[in-house]
Design goal:
The chain is an alpha/beta fold. It has helices spanning 13-24, 31-40, 44-54, 61-72, 90-102, 117-125, 166-180, 182-188, 202-214; strands spanning 2-6, 28-30, 81-84, 109-114, 127-130, 137-139, 158-159, 193-197. Pathway: Purine metabolism; AMP biosynthesis via salvage pathway; AMP from ADP: step 1/1.
Length: 216
């Protein structure tokens, strides 16, 4: 299957993308991973992307599209793929359609993970990360530490990252509504979109997504 996963920050796209890709035995292709892989391998596209990032500029669509094209042409993606974070806007969606058409392929589904804005803000703004090890993550409401402000694992100080502040989260949501959300209507016109509630337990969201993909 060839799937695009869409949803606001905090909807759990990364978690669901990993679970769905494993279940369907297809690669999970995320924009972040594409950038990191190309930059670490110092590919021409990676060097180009890094030059924009180092200057504090957005990576142009054509660079992102070229990276995605290269990844989708790898042998493990022959049977399908799950795109997470790409396309990010209608221009990228149109470019993806053109790319797939040249390869005589098409998308099978677009899953729209839906969560109320206040819930998204609560999920992200409530995160606390250990200063000693960023892999130790807690949440003030869902997975609070035994002692406030102290990591259960190593005793390090827990803090809120700058990009997890409520103000930053709401700005990220504005960008999502303005730039990315329009692709939902774009794909609805093609009859590809199924909305899946991102509320509840992770396993329940995965189950709903798999049901949507199977058409049940």
């Amino acid at each position: 299957m060839r799937i695009v996963l869409v949803g606001p920050p905090g909807a759990g796209k990364g978690t669901q993308a990993t679970r769905l890709a494993e279940t369907l035995h297809i690669p999970h292709i995320s924009t972040g991973d594409l950038f990191r892989a190309n930059i670490s391998r110092q590919t021409e596209l990676g060097k180009l992307a890094k030059s924009y990032m180092d200057a504090g500029n957005l990576v142009p669509d054509e660079v992102t599209i070229a990276m995605a094209k290269d990844r989708m042409e790898q042998p493990d993606a022959e049977g399908g793929f799950l795109l997470d974070g790409f396309p990010r806007n209608v221009s990228q969606a149109e470019a993806l359609d053109e790319l797939l058409e040249t390869e005589d392929m098409k998308l099978d589904a677009v899953l729209d993970l839906e969560a109320p804005e206040d819930e998204v803000v609560k999920r992200i703004a409530g995160r606390r990360v250990c200063r000693n090890d960023s892999a130790h993550v807690f949440h003030v409401a869902y997975t609070p530490p035994k002692k406030e402000g102290v990591c259960d694992v190593c005793g390090g100080e827990l803090y809120q990252r700058d990009d997890d502040s409520e103000e930053t989260v709401r700005k990220r949501l504005e960008v999502y509504h303005t730039q990315t959300e329009p692709i939902i209507d774009y794909y609805k016109a093609q009859g590809l979109v199924t909305t899946v509630s991102a509320m509840g337990k992770v396993a329940d969201v995965t189950k709903r997504a798999m049901s949507a993909l199977s058409g049940s």
